[in-house]
């Protein structure tokens, strides 16, 4: 499979919302699209043909939760980063991060940040290989809800660490 040649990265288009796999909650993709339309965020989608294989939300104003909100000034925040399981370890996540980091740097940002669950060693290893480092702000708790295909809601609570990558000297 030649994913590198066939992969297309672009901001979500309104007509593509229905092509995306279900989000964690109904309306997630639409909400992220409208954040993008308002200039608040960029919702990057990785496409192989008509299949959305990855997603990443970049919020330009950064993380609002404390202590990140007050300590990290002009630090866009990456979240909702996912590559479909059957497409992982094929360079898609790396390409998405390359793309989003370049866009942030072109807009004059010198750093970019994200939270990673302490138990998500695979993701943390990827971020650290790419130059993301512990922000020094300590651990924090993140919680989010998701709804399965049967409509049952689940609450996830993660202990996280906030990582920052310096984009420019």
TrEMBL record:
<dbReference type="GO" id="GO:0016747">
    <property type="term" value="F:acyltransferase activity, transferring groups other than amino-acyl groups"/>
</dbReference>
<keyword id="KW-1133">Transmembrane helix</keyword>
<keyword id="KW-0808">Transferase</keyword>
<keyword id="KW-0812">Transmembrane</keyword>
<feature type="domain" description="N-acetyltransferase">
    <location>
        <begin position="1"/>
        <end position="153"/>
    </location>
</feature>
<protein>
    <recommendedName>
        <fullName>N-acetyltransferase domain-containing protein</fullName>
    </recommendedName>
</protein>
<keyword id="KW-0472">Membrane</keyword>
<dbReference type="InterPro" id="IPR051556">
    <property type="entry name" value="N-term/lysine_N-AcTrnsfr"/>
</dbReference>
<feature type="transmembrane region" description="Helical">
    <location>
        <begin position="40"/>
        <end position="60"/>
    </location>
</feature>
<keyword id="KW-0012">Acyltransferase</keyword>
<dbReference type="InterPro" id="IPR000182">
    <property type="entry name" value="GNAT_dom"/>
</dbReference>
<dbReference type="Pfam" id="PF00583">
    <property type="entry name" value="Acetyltransf_1"/>
</dbReference>
<dbReference type="InterPro" id="IPR016181">
    <property type="entry name" value="Acyl_CoA_acyltransferase"/>
</dbReference>
């Amino acid at each position: 499979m030649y994913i590198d040649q066939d992969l297309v990265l672009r901001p979500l288009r309104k007509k593509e919302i229905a092509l995306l796999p279900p989000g964690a909650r109904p309306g997630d993709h639409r909400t992220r699209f409208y954040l993008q339309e308002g200039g608040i965020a960029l919702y990057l989608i990785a496409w192989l043909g008509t299949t959305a294989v990855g997603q990443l939300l970049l919020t330009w104003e950064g993380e609002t939760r404390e202590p990140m909100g007050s300590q990290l000034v002009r630090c866009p925040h990456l979240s909702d980063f996912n590559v479909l399981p059957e497409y992982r370890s094929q360079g898609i996540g790396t390409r998405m991060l390359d793309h989003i980091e370049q866009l942030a740097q072109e807009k004059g940002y010198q750093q970019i940040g994200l939270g990673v669950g302490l138990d998500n060693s695979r993701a943390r290893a990827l971020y650290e290989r790419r130059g993301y480092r512990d922000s020094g702000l300590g651990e924090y708790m993140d919680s989010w809800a998701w709804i399965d295909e049967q409509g049952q809601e689940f609450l996830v609570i993660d202990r996280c660490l906030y990582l920052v990558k310096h984009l420019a000297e």
